[in-house]
Design brief:
203 residues; Wheat Germ Agglutinin (Isolectin 2), domain 1; 2 domains; five-stranded mixed β-sheet; 60s Ribosomal Protein L30, Chain: A; alpha+beta; homodimer
Chain lengths: 203, 203
């Protein structure tokens, strides 16, 4: 069985170069993307929702046109190992999840999924072999409708203002200062360095 | 000038295949990743923080080992067009941002950045030519320290429980039911379909 348009080996090396390691979650996630997409009517314009930020989003970004940066992939962090491919405008879609009942047949997968033993005690080779043999038989599908407030929003052309605090542009409603300057900066300290020497044209 | 290890043309086609379109933000973002990385001491183990979910995260995911799925890329949505590459454990890093003052020299870039005209009135060809000529001269850098609470967290091996509502595993502290079953499901309705026929081994 292929994972979308890739063979298992191709997907495996794709994971390595993008995700850094061949994490079990992204291998299983690839199968979940594949079986969910197969159930969608052809030529559907779809978005994807991931119920965890761990691993699964990378499977989606590698196998579909949906990425975090283009807004077609959204993460709603519920901690469940599940993803939903859904029709962009009405929200009807297919949810694929790792099925705890089906996983029981594969002790090493179950142990990884339910964190029954510390990572260093896992038999990674056996885990990988079981994942490969199990394929998508450990997953289940559901028909769902994604609630409007959880669907990917079309890009809004909100007005942009220059913040008098930092001098940078931000999407303003009525606020004068940007969120960072209103006390939500993620930084401890600022030391402005004017590094213009490094900056050049692209070509 | 290259964008990390790619020529401008290579990066351009990489964007197209991953992000779907050659959005201005991801081209400029590529230059921001490049100049921020150049200022980091060699062999630093780094994570990345993006201050917007639009476009920039995809530049980071294409050019660095940091992705949403492996947890080394974090989005703190402040709506500012900025990213920070920082040393993983102490948080010291380099913030690159699109500089409103420097952008003034490039009317089409300024118009795009400050949303001075509707998208359909933008001259995309001219915008692209200006982005290419301006390169990273429209960006500025700052030395920052990312606050501990905003740094990417090392993966915690939280205990996992089966939710009696949905039957799926979730990371539990003291809760009996998962967040979705406690009223935060992103779905309107559930129709369980048992689609086992499609599921096969990977090979």
């Amino acid at each position: 069985m292929n994972i979308c348009s890739y063979s298992f080996e191709e997907y495996f090396s794709l994971i390595k170069s993008f995700h850094g390691s061949t994490a079990p979650g992204i291998i299983i996630g690839g199968g979940m993307v594949d079986i969910a997409l197969r159930e969608m009517p052809e030529n559907t314009l779809y978005d994807v929702l991931c119920e965890t930020s761990a691993c699964l989003p990378d499977a989606v970004q590698l196998l579909t046109p949906c990425t975090i940066g283009n807004g077609w992939l959204k993460i709603v962090n519920l901690g469940r190992f599940a993803l939903t491919v859904y029709e962009k405008y009405q929200g009807r879609g297919i949810r694929a999840f790792l099925d705890a009942k089906k996983v029981k047949r594969w002790p090493e997968i179950e142990s990884w999924y339910l964190r029954l033993k510390p990572k260093k005690e896992q038999d990674f080779k056996l885990l990988l072999a079981q994942i490969r043999e199990a394929g998508t038989t450990i997953c289940s599908l559901q028909e769902v409708t994604v609630s409007p407030q959880f669907r990917a929003k079309p890009k809004q052309n909100k007005a942009v203002t220059i913040c008098p605090g930092c001098g940078e542009a931000f999407p303003a409603q009525t606020e004068r200062f940007c969120e960072a300057c209103r006390g939500h900066s993620p930084y401890l300290s600022f030391d402005f360095t004017n590094e213009t020497t490094r900056q050049t044209a692209f070509s």
